[in-house]
Amino acid sequence: MCHILGSWASSASAQVPTDASPGCHHLTNISKSGHSLLPCPCSQHTLAELRDALDSCAERQRQLERSLRVSRRLLRAWYADPGTTRLGLPRAVRTPLSDPGPACIPSPQDLKELELLTQALEKAVRVRKGISKAGEGNKAPSLKSGSIVTSPATRASAPPRTSHRAGSRASETKPPRGIRQTRVPTKDLPECRLLSVGDQACMGQGAGDTKPKSGLRNEQIVLSAASQAPEAFTLKDKGILLQLPEAFRKAASRNSRLRRNNSRKGQSYSRTQGLSMTRMQSGWPGPRLSATEVEAEVRHLQKACLLLRLRMGEELMADPQDWMQEYRCLLTLEELQAIVGQCLHRLRELCTGEACPARGRFPRASLPCGGGADPIWSPQLLLYSSTQELQTLAALRLRVAMLHQQIHLEKVLMAELLPLVSKQEPLGPPWLALCRAVHSLLCEGGQRFLTILREDKPAD
Amino acid sequence: MGRRRRRRRVDPADAARALPEAIAALSQTLPAGPSPETFRRAKFDRPEAAPALWRLLFRVLSPQLADGASASFSPEAQVRSVKLALRTQGYPRRALAQLPDDGSQGGRELLLALAWLLARGPLPERLLTQNRVQLGDEMPVCECEALASPGPPAPSVEADGCVDIRHLQWLMGKLRFRWRNLMASQQEQCALLGKIHSYTRGCHSDRSLGHLSVTETELLRDPEGGRQLLQRLERENARLQAALEWRRRELVFWRWMDTVLGACPPEASQPTFLPRIPTPGTGALEPLVRELQALQGELREAVEARRAAWEAGVGGRGPEWSAARTALREAVGQDLAALRQACEQGGSCSLAQPHGPHRLVRTEAGVAGGPGLRAPEVIEALRSQEARLEVVLRQLQGQCRQELARLVGAPPGPVWILPPGR
Q: Region entry Disordered: which residue ranges (chain A) (predicted)?
């Protein structure tokens, strides 16, 4: 009679349906009978490692999400700024509406500026009316619409032009004495095709005329009036026209110049330190390694162990063709043996706390990698030529990180689970279930399970 | 003669100004730097100088905190954090650890601690690098940062109860799922970056860059954010400038620090130093010791076997043999030189791989391009790394399989049917 444990199922929580047939034990029976328990003290460490792995993954995801939000927003439509340049930005572009959520509410500063602007234009229209005796009602719409500006060239002609258009449309609006008091039902703005989906959701939210919402609608009126010639700015169409502001360019070039100068100066640093170090340290005992340095060295030795093991594997697998290659292989293995010996020696030094910093290097524990010699470098360039290339690169980088993590977890789990299996001796079903679970975790990365067939002596 | 006379005519006022200027430069390049007057008072251990110096050391020793975050730490917490950080880095003077936690005393000791930190490494430059303003879209090409982060803190001794192995399985599954999500998000981000870079080509004033980065485009979209970025950039420029000044004038500072050291009361008998923080438990190092020992054992076996085979073999006799042997020894030495260096040298990242964050720049294919790393090269390096790591993982898994098979025992034990092919 065979007891079949398990299945090919790849889910971690396989639910094997109970079978009525008497001769088979299924996993459910076994799992019901008892948990595969892990002893307490070590398991906390394993759990901590797993949680740490999960957390670091989550942290990367958070950072990515942040960048994704910014990038997505940039690829949507922006809007032209009603007004002149800000911050000295030529062709300033602003998105009052493209952020659903908290940014739906224009800042008080924006509202204030809008109010000032509309008052100024109000005055301009009054003057113009006084001159031309145009029959436009001195209602607000004509003023608001005048604020659409998309390029400096047409700015001068924009107010009189657009005022005609807007006057015919949003005729129910009131003068903007308080911007908050504007009441325009949303259905009066059919041409809001410039708004992205997110904005429409934002608009649809407030049924009541709360203050922020009406300020929002106020701006929508402004924009819809301009929709005659939609000036939505998309990066795709007009990205080439962008230009960085002067102040920023100057600051950025100054920044890179200072960094270059600083990295050159950094070399003279070591000379002055020679003087001061001896004086400062004369009263103090010889340098010992700090805890962070010890940790860093241990990690480094772990990496070294990995490299050595890999190299040994390569040598052992090589098939020497002649005596020269054979001898060379032998020499290599001897050399590797020597290096391993040195690493062990260093490790023992670290264990006993007798270690001194290795030959004249500065503590590197806190220096970013690659920047060891040159801490103030500005980042070098990485040139890519197609999106495909960039994606491959990024995917490989993540894959390497994931493999590092998998190897680390594999070692942790090995140290934890193998002794467990060897301790529990009886070949009963619970132990076999444990074996199966351990096998899947350690040998298949938790993705596949094996089947255990057990021959039972006939009961009778 | 004339030269000597010229030197003597140096204005004493200049000499007097040199020290405060040096200290001012240092103070400006460090975050939360106090005034030169505070430094002077600290030399004489005046109590009013202490709080400012505690704050300075706190900011210097915890650079990862944002500018405003340090305010959320109480003065006592800051003092304790500074003491712990200094101890972790191996600061030897006991007197600092004995200062009261309320941060009211200790100006002189704090000055010495600051000088010790400055003497150990390029501190201002390092701080400026860690928190620099990023203007480009950066991507690290190595995993060193992630690998260098410390593991989980040592778990508390009391345990909550036993853990079911299925919980471990569940956690592993969750981890796999998160990685898959991460990969997908990363692909999307790369696609978006590619678009933004190609849509803005030709816009950048710097020809070698050619197009705008996300940060730069964002500042055009959002002038308010742009203004803040500009302010941060200008603040950083001021600190960079101050760092240059500091390097020019620091000799004066070190001479002054000698006087500060002299002003300290002599330490009792021998320079006492703090008992070292115990190394992260020999327990934590045990697995590594065992690994290395196992490796050593395997190597020893292999070497013995091959040497025996060699001695018993036919090759390698005769006069030309010794010349060949020396040549081979040299060749092997060179072969393994890189490996040896990687294993010996403290902390250096692995052999000849590109490192650090790089700014992404999109170019036309085939264009020779200026300085900078090329993506295909990085991809090559990463692929070989990936292959190596996969080999290691398979080896480990193979070891586990063998071990488990051994434990489960020979027939008439159960028969294991492995899952279908790889």
A: 132-183, 252-287
Q: Measured between CA atoms, how close is B398 to chain A, in angstroms?
A: 7
Residue-level pLDDT at A39: 57
CA distances from A184 to A173, A190, A220, A246 (A): 7, 12, 10, 40
B362 phi, psi to nearest 5 deg: -95, 130
A39 touches B at CB < 8 Å: yes
Query: To 5 degrees, how large is the angle CA B127–CA B57–CA B273?
Result: 115
pLDDT at B216 over 80: yes
pLDDT tens-place string over residues B57-71: 998 888 777 666 777
Q: Which residues contact A301 (CB under 8 A, 6 or more apart)?
A: A343, A346, A347, B288, B292, B343
B83, B112, B303: best mutation site toward chain A, by most A Cβ within 10 Å?
A: B303
The Cα–Cα gap between A450 and A437 comes to 9
Tell whether A317 is within 8 A of chain B (Cβ). no
Length of chain B: 422
- Region B51-61: what's the mean pLDDT? 89
Per-residue model confidence (pLDDT) at position A403:
93
Instruction: Report CA A26 to chain centroid distance, whole Å.
Output: 44
| Lowest mean pLDDT, pick from B11-15, B252-256, B376-380 | B11-15
- One-letter identity of residue B86: L
Closest CA to A441 of B166, B394, B179, B414: B166
End-to-end CA distance of chain A, in Å?
A: 12
**Can you give the pLDDT at residue A221?**
45
> How high is the pLDDT of residue A360?
36
Token reading at B152: 């989980």
Provide the chain A residues 124-163 that lie in CB contact (below 8 A) with chain B: none
- ∠ CA(B183), CA(B188), CA(B190), 5° rounding? 95
Q: Environment class of residue A116 by beta-carbon count within 10 Å: exposed (0-12), middle (13-18) or buried (19+)? A: exposed
Q: Which of residues 248-307 of A touch B (CB under 8 A)?
A: 248-249, 251-255, 258-259, 261-262, 265-266, 268-269, 272-273, 275-277, 279-281, 283-285, 287-307
Task: Give the per-residue pLDDT at B194.
Answer: 93
DSSP structure class, residue A455: E
Q: What is the pLDDT of residues B173-186, one digit of tens each?
A: 999 999 999 999 99
Grouping H, G, I as helix, E, B as strand and the rest as coil, residue B339 is helix
Mean pLDDT value across residues B93-121: 83
Asked whether the CA dihedral A289, A292, A298, A300 is positive or negative, the reply is: negative
CB-based contact B336 A427, cutoff 8 Å: no
Residue A152 is predicted with a pLDDT of 41
Question: Which residue numbers in chain A have pLDDT < 50?
Answer: 1-34, 81-104, 135-230, 274, 278, 282-286, 359-368, 370-373
Say what angle helices B165-199 and A40-75 make with each other, to 10 degrees. 20
**Cβ proximity of B315 and A322 under 8 Å:** yes
ipTM score for this prediction: 0.79
